[in-house]
Write a structure and sequence with these properties.
19 helices; alpha+beta; 6-stranded mixed beta sheet; 7-stranded mixed beta sheet; Nucleotidyltransferase, domain 5
Length: 495
Amino acid sequence: MQHNKCFLAVDLGATSGRTVVGRLIDGKVNMTELTRFKNPIIPVFNHDYWDLYALYNEILHALHVAVEQHLHLTSIGIDTWGCDFALFGDDGYLLRNPLCYRDPCHREAMKQYLQQRMSSDEVYRITGIQFLPFNSLFQLYGMRQRNNTALRQACHVAFIPDALIYLLTGKLVCEYTVASTSQMLNPATHELDPSLLHSVGLTRQQFGSMVMPATIVASLSADICDKVGMPPVPVVAVAGHDTASAVAAVPAANPHFAYLSSGTWSLMGIETSQAIISPESKQYNFTNEGGIDGTTRFLKNICGMWLYEQCRKEWPDVQNLSHAELQQQAMQCEPFRSLINPDDECFANPASMTTAIAGYCADTHQPVPTTHAEFCRCIFDSLALRYRQVFGYLKQMSPFTIDTLHIIGGGSKNGLLNQLTANSCGVTVKAGPQEATALGNIMLQAKAAGLVDNIWQLRQAISASVTLDTYTPQHSEVWDEAYQKYLDITKSKTL
């Protein structure tokens, strides 16, 4: 493989962002972090927003750093979280910062939409997307109901990675994988559905042209090139949804695998040749999102390390402890003493996560955690048991036998939770790579540059570049009993 290609991955998460430089050298991917920055939620007048211009400015800063380090970039790719979007006026300028998917107003909007506009059966039949209150469809409906000025004046709608590509190039596109998270895309037609757009007062013309991952969109605009002192580098629409980029990087040897993208969110699923839309998939609230090379990511969202991250913020006395040290303390606690449903709505964005967990345990007549370690043990046990529940649904609906569960993303380094997941699910777990999203982003740029032809060549390069940790199931009878306890505690809650 060529040595002179240098790719810049912009990887934006729901709490932080970073830029990473990647190269292909002797069939392996070499990555170096260039910059890292925070991406805080900004509360204004009882709503939560993202600062799009701040993210844009961080990308410009990364380009400045690349110039200072004499990096000759082959291309740039951007991935972000899904569902959220930006609105632009007829003059091409941003009308208002984007609403955050954690804004509390979205939940009521979903209920109203399904009562007043279209039934859940019809929406799911068209899209195959799970019902989450922050799906773009419901966000847009809620904004219409509130007579949102920005939406009323919007000429163009762009999902977050597409909005940033637009600010960098002046070219508006609609990347397929991130569009698929909106609950407005039909996986059979690979296009936004006119009836769903009409239901929220939008038209197809307000979105950019649909592009698939690994498409070169345009080069950096002339004013940006002048500003940073860089030639007109191409910007590639990678898999704009970060999970799609991460799943592209699963180092699997064959299609018989499931994945768990573990981070702030946990996303468990399989890769299929076509969407799975059935009464069972709707009942279990599974989603069909766009993947690479025409595949579908059939998966379910699970509230992941968000619980742990939010608790840790409330504990100033543990800031000097490493994650491993805190996890080791958790392992000394009694297992399964207190269990929660991580996906209960009370954990979506509480003022205090520890208070929310304590309240859940009290309401379900369980011991309330009192120490940091007890809270952590409660979270990790509960996540592992929730993974088992979702893995069971997945095996029931999968068109193939699942041999291995690949855990990718930041959570893949949590050895405690990885072992608990193997024990709970009764399946061999292979953990890594931690940097799956950036790797997928870089390798899709490599695909656009002609260095790999398809997803399996892409994965072969990634597999050669990483070392995986393997966890085998243990203590099956203990976990069977714990799972029954989990079901008893959570049976009154939603799937």
